[in-house]
Amino acid sequence: MLSFTSHNPSSPETILLIHSGFSNSTEWDQVRQHLTSEPHPYHVVVPDLPSHGTSLHLKPLSVYSTAYLLSQLIRDHAHGGTAHVVGASLGAHIAAQLAAHYPARVSSLVVTGFNIFAPNVLTPLLPPLVYFWLHTAELLSHPTEGMARLQRGEGSLDLCRDAVEMVVSARELERIDGDSVSALVVVAAAREGLLLPAWDRQDDARRLLESVTRTGNGPASASRAVLHRGARHSWQIDEPELFARTVRAWIAGVELPVGFEDLE
């Protein structure tokens, strides 16, 4: 079973927050505080994904098995057995799979940072490179904490393989029932970044939106793909108040905050 925390359980609507790769549930601390506050506080459930945080013992990290585990978590701990699902980066892949396979558990969907890359002959080299970069950067910037993470087995080479397999993949995106799930796909489009790009790939967002098929016969409103030219890939961490307002607006069916524009 996934390790998770539950906040403000007396509120009748549940939001599930799915963190990004090589992180843990504390990534959402500031966003969660905004979502559980007045005037409309939500019940917020925040799990640690397999091979991360307090779910470090659960292996492997797979888009399919993790979506199943999250569906069980929603069934057992969300009000009414359904939740508004929010996923960032690697968590966006899992959130989309959850909505595709278990639509009865998903009230609405917000995903940001969904990027998927075609594999090539160099793909097998990526896991050790990611492992080296991840731990070298951490050991140089926070040596004590970085060494402790290594000793606990966090950011393992197996996790690097699992994460690369998820985001560097030729898999077809599975259909999401847009009649029962309304999806908001967000592209962070700030053109800044040093070692790594800070922006998302617009074509991948379009591809994800196209996987949401709708006849108009269901209760869900139309899905959208939007971009924000001032947001970075990690905007759930950089701008938690804006992120929370965006989630609230999508759930409530009102205008998104200023700065968002529809993706052409």
UniProtKB/TrEMBL annotation:
Name this protein carries in UniProt: Alpha/beta-hydrolase
Start and end residues of each AB hydrolase-1 domain: 14-114
One GO MF term: hydrolase activity
SUPFAM superfamilies: alpha/beta-Hydrolases (SSF53474)
Keywords in alphabetical order: Hydrolase
Listed InterPro entries: AB_hydrolase_1 (IPR000073), AB_hydrolase_fold (IPR029058), AB_hydrolase_sf (IPR050266)
GO cellular component: membrane
Domain of life: Eukaryota
Gene3D superfamilies with a match to the protein in the record: alpha/beta hydrolase
